Amino acid sequence: MERKIDEKKRNQPLIKIVITLLTLIVLILIGIPFSKYFLIATHTQETKTIIHNKMPGIIPKTEKIEAPNLATLMGQAPQADNQKISGENAYAIGQVVIPTVSINQPIFIGLTNENLVHGTVDLFPNRQPDKNTLTIIGHHVFYYGGYQLLFGGIQNLKKEEPVYVRYFNQYYEYKVSSNVIIKETDVDKLVDIGPDYLYLMTCNQTLKTPYRVLITAKKVSVNEMKLKETFQESSKVLTNKSQKNYLIWFIMPIIILIFIISIFLFYVWKI
């Protein structure tokens, strides 16, 4: 009898180690899908983007665009005080603000994966909003509970809802006129139809898809000073909202999970 008790005591540390390792494995498995969204949200919160008043001397070469993945995001840590995030990328020339779907993103020049992780891209940098149709594209990232990241959310835009754009130091207001699904090959849908229009485009879902959401909006005449105030106030409100969502959807779950696991492992090693 005593021999069995002694053997059980000797096996206890091994059992505890196995339980601890299994707990950590479960934590890693839970964390892998969460990490992608966490890194995207962290990029949005931590990256400080300077908006320039002229086009860059060199526009980055167009890349084959892939959906955001953990490997890509891990290699693109945010920089707190740089004008450029790395190399020739992340040269911002504007900002798009859409209050009704909580979008507040910089507009970069250069269709690269890095730029699309940090915001939106002006698809045709040779077009000017005072002379041509501006086309802004971005990734569609859907998180749990209906929380959208990057350009996810534009698929919910309705007619007459406002879209505010800063391009260099000029401000524009547009009203949504249509919201349709097109094929990625329908490039003719993005034809320049003049300076009174704006295109917004993203994938129609988070997973790889041949379909795109295309929003067309029409420019409206507004007092310039009032428009600038509206733009800045809307951007400020959305920034504060984004910070709160970041705490609620990302930081708090991490803290709660670490607390629960710590209590569990403490109990395992105490008995």
UniProtKB/TrEMBL annotation:
Chain ranges passing through the membrane: 14-34, 246-269
Domain of life: Bacteria
Keywords on record: Hydrolase, Membrane, Protease, Thiol protease, Transmembrane, Transmembrane helix
One BP term from GO: proteolysis
Entry EC no(s): 3.4.22.70
Name of this chain's protein: Sortase A
GO MF annotation terms: cysteine-type peptidase activity
Pfam family for this entry, one: Sortase
Enzyme class: hydrolase
Species for this entry: Lactococcus lactis
SUPFAM superfamilies in alphabetical order: Sortase
Active site: H139, C203
